[in-house]
Amino acid sequence: MLASRPRIEPHRSPTIDSVMVKEIYLSVQGESSHAGLLCAFVRLTGCHLRCTYCDSEFAFRGGTRMPNAQVVEQVKALRTPMVEITGGEPLLQPGVYPLMEALLAEGLTVLLETSGAIDVRLVPPAVHKIVDMKTPSSGESDRNDVRNFSSMNARDEMKFVIGSREDYEWSKALIAEHGLATKPFAMLFSTVFDKLHPRELAEWVIADRLPVRFQLQMHKYVWEPEARGV
């Protein structure tokens, strides 16, 4: 059910000791099983996808190139034990891999928010990977890389953002076709904000007894319309 497209691999570059950073800030984690916890966010610049419901288009360009050591120091200055690397698409930058290692070496809990369009096999196993599988309403569902189904471990979570009944049925079929309910990682279902009422999605999950975690994007309800995506 997933069309065959060229695989997207992390870009090769000699610049592996720095990353292009859009912003670093402190907030409350808005989603995933870590929702509600204090978290530092490192948002990297750039993305190769153009999802219709993207809430972080401001991160497509711009930013400041920073040495990884400087990023680590800024994160430590925020004085929280959890950090999420997000974007954009952070795995497009070669420097993100040593950055994740450096953050782990500081004893931090490291989360990675990434699309389902890049295989996460090179991400350090100790990182909590949150992989966003693109549903049809995103316009990018044919970019999903099914190798992620074998590259994720029990720390990880696969996210489905649902904007319609079609998205829901597509996601349900994908779970069945690839036996995702038997995989070690968790699965998260949330709605496209302002496109589908959360109660509808909750009722569909209940009716089908899907083995997923229903969630809201908490930050959207707390800070919208000012909120940016995480």
TrEMBL record:
Binding-site positions, S-adenosyl-L-methionine: Y53, C54, D55, G88
Protein's GO biological process: tRNA queuosine(34) biosynthetic process
Radical SAM core domain span: 34-225
Swiss-Prot/TrEMBL keywords: 4Fe-4S, Iron, Iron-sulfur, Lyase, Magnesium, Metal-binding, Queuosine biosynthesis, S-adenosyl-L-methionine
Residues given in the record as Mg(2+) binding sites: S56
Reaction(s) the record says it catalyses: 6-carboxy-5,6,7,8-tetrahydropterin + H(+) = 7-carboxy-7-carbaguanine + NH4(+)
Pfam families (UniProt xref): Radical_SAM
Keyword Transport: no
GO MF term list: 4 iron, 4 sulfur cluster binding; carbon-nitrogen lyase activity; magnesium ion binding; S-adenosyl-L-methionine binding
Residues the record lists as binding [4Fe-4S] cluster: C47, C51, C54
Cofactor descriptive note: Binds 1 [4Fe-4S] cluster. The cluster is coordinated with 3 cysteines and an exchangeable S-adenosyl-L-methionine.
Protein name: 7-carboxy-7-deazaguanine synthase
Originating species: Stigmatella aurantiaca (strain DW4/3-1)
Taxonomy of the source species: Bacteria, Pseudomonadati, Myxococcota, Myxococcia, Myxococcales
